Amino acid sequence: MTILVTGGAGFIGSNFVLDWLAASDEAVVNLDKLTYAGNPENLASLRDDARHVFVKGDIGDYALVLDLLTRHRVRAVVNFAAESHVDRSIHGPEDFIQTNILGSFRLLEAVRCYWNGLDDAEKNAFRLLHVSTDEVYGSLAKTDPPFAESNQYQPNSPYSASKAASDHLVRAYHHTYGLPVLTTNCSNNYGPYHFPEKLIPLCIQNALSGKPLPIYGDGQQIRDWLYVKDHCSAIRRVLEAGRVGEVYNVGGWNEKANLEVVHTLCAILDELQPRADGKSYAEQITYVTDRPGHDRRYAIDAGKLERELGWKPAESFETGIRKTVQWYLRHQDWVNNVLSGDYQSWLDKNYANR
Ligand code: NAD
Fold first, then answer.
1. Ligand 1 nearest-atom number relative to CA 59
2. ipTM of the complex
3. What residue stretches are annotated with the NAD(P)-binding domain (predicted)?
4. What's the domain count of the chain?
């Protein structure tokens, strides 16, 4: 049997593919467009592994997706592919509409066509799991309860609006066509292979290079944080046992203000790799103008996933963030490649014709 993973060269997708193949013999076809966020180097350890088939391509390419599904007799699709960075969506929303809405629509159409052609047993066993975000629920006040699956969608950025649109399409394909779908809405992830434009890897990297650690506004925006491997285990569990048509929130019960997260990073770096002048990395914290429309608080209630499917995160924020800092300290070559032109030339050389 084979699963199709889309966006499997990105941050969460590559962690998922690595974890999947470490735990199962089931092959993975990995479809990724290799945008700036897709990095095949994350999957370098699978280069000689016949269970991993990498295909450079777009989820919006209906013919390609249908061909992959049919040729590999895929039994499940896990859709990670997306434009994922809120700041980029503010400066240029077009790509977000293109991939997150139109791309998801074409993917759904290809999956629907393939699924219609399966026999009854295969149809029943088939799953499409759509990976989404807690940002679709909007912003919470300090005293509001965390987001439940029943919360109304109130997306505030072009990114979250485009993800909300894809979630609605996935829901509609189940209700209208009977497609066996599952949706997960997860909080902020952190961990290995995180592109250094997002808060945690950006601050680790800037700290080490003596640059400012930029804090939007007053730094009191609250997010729930989940170690990426725990998100991967939640997706595996939902794929295995989730009820068709259901939505599952995924989170770590770890609400932290951005400023607190950055102070935690500084404290771990102070201990593991002290600054040459003996001062704390916290000295590099710099307040910058807030992001327009910045949501104040996200918090997620993962109770349904825990009660129904027995899932629990393995890492606390304290253990996960320490592992993350250690990973970045050990993988400075990975960061430097991502940040340098070498990465682009490597990409052109290795993936130009695939
Ligand atoms: P990412 O930006 O690191 O990776 C996205 C991947 O998708 C990249 O490899 C990129 O090349 C690929 N891609 C983009 N457009 C594509 C297209 N048209 N066709 C095929 N591939 C395409 O993102 P991520 O942080 O790994 O997030 C993965 C998914 O999880 C996204 O759907 C995101 O909305 C969701 N999510 C992310 C977080 C988080 O904290 N990062 C939290 C909750 C949900």
1. 19
2. 0.99
3. 4-324
4. 1
Amino acid at residue number 171: R
The domain in which residue 29 lies consists of: 2-351
Q: Is the CB of residue 12 less than 8 Å from the CB of residue 231? A: yes
- Locate 234 and state its tokens: 């939640």
| Model confidence pLDDT, tens digit, residues 172-185 | 999 999 999 999 99
How far is ligand 1, taken at its centre, from the CA of residue 66, in Å?
Answer: 21
Picking from 213, 225, 226, 202, the residue whose alpha carbon sits closest to that of residue 328 is 202
Q: Is the CB of 201 under 6 A from ligand 1?
A: no
In whole angstroms, give the CA distance from residue 28 to residue 17. Answer: 7
Per residue in 37-55, pLDDT tens? 999 999 999 999 999 999 9
Q: Is 218 exposed, middle or buried (0-12, 13-18, 19+ CB in 10 A)?
A: exposed
Between CA 265 and CA 198, with CA 200 as vertex, the angle to 5 degrees is 165
What gap in Å lies between CA 103 and CA 315, rounded to an integer?
33
Atom of ligand 1 nearest to the CA of 194: 3
> Which CATH number do you get for residue 244?
3.40.50.720
Which of 3, 13, 5, 6 has the alpha carbon at shortest distance from 194? 13
